[in-house]
Amino acid sequence: MTDSAVEVVDPAPEHARIVREFVNTVEWQVDEDAWQAPEDLAAWCGTHLGLEVGGLDEADLLQARRVREGLRALLLMNAGHDPLPTDLHRLDEALGALPLRMRVTPGGELRLAPAGGGPLAEPLGVVLAAMEAARSAGAWPRLKACSRDTCRWAYWDASRNGSARWCSMAGCGNFVKMRRRNRPVPPVEDVLPQGDRPRAPTLLDVAGRAGVSMKTVSNVVTGAVRVAEPTRARVLAAIDELGYRPNLAARALRTGAADRV
Q1: What is the pLDDT of residue 38?
Q2: Using one digit for the tens of pLDDT, what is the confidence trace for 132-147?
Q3: Residue 91 and residue 88: Cα distance in Å, rounded?
Q4: 3-state DSSP percent of the chain in helix, strand and coil, to 5
Q5: Alpha helices in 50-120 (DSSP H)
Q6: Cα end-to-end distance, the chain, whole Å
Q7: Structural domains of the chain in order of their starting residue, each with its CATH number
């Protein structure tokens, strides 16, 4: 073994990395969002997109979070999972609120660009342009979200036949494998269903739909901590829209699997 560092090459093309990093600004396993405030979103745009964005407010933050979770729904579909009711409709609504148009660069390239509107239009335009580039290059199907229900981390499927299901075989893949081996009939299967198997919405789904943390949703459901009325109303609307019903077994599983593996 030598002292030289081994360079890890990311196999994902640049446009796919942009989308992946955008979606992975929240880590649901530990309920940590990199965008706690509009200033965090602006800082991320500067660091990851090279854009100086000012004037963002709470409404912009909520819109960015909703677009993020809508894109996660698309990546779950790439992994073979059906979206929840209104997932795609909500994403379409969020994207429809962005004033974007196709422009021609001096070099003759076609790019999505803001056509007026608020400060969020340009950074989201970059993310959507990256999605279109991935689609045009045939790379979009390999951009997926982890099939482990409590993870859903975006990843690039570098497998030869494009059949990977986990963000990491050493992490989530091994966790699911060992859990099945040790508990052949677990009370809660921490794997998103595929095919015709329906899936019930979880607390994570409500949080993503409402644009809040899972802790906030839990506080609304249990009433343990007072939540500001506008946020509470948004959470209750998401619960009603998704038909969410608290699952005590799933809650215990989530608590026991809080750390990323």
Answers
A1: 97
A2: 899 999 999 999 999 9
A3: 5
A4: 50, 10, 45
A5: 58-78, 87-96
A6: 26
A7: 8-200+245-261 (1.10.3300)
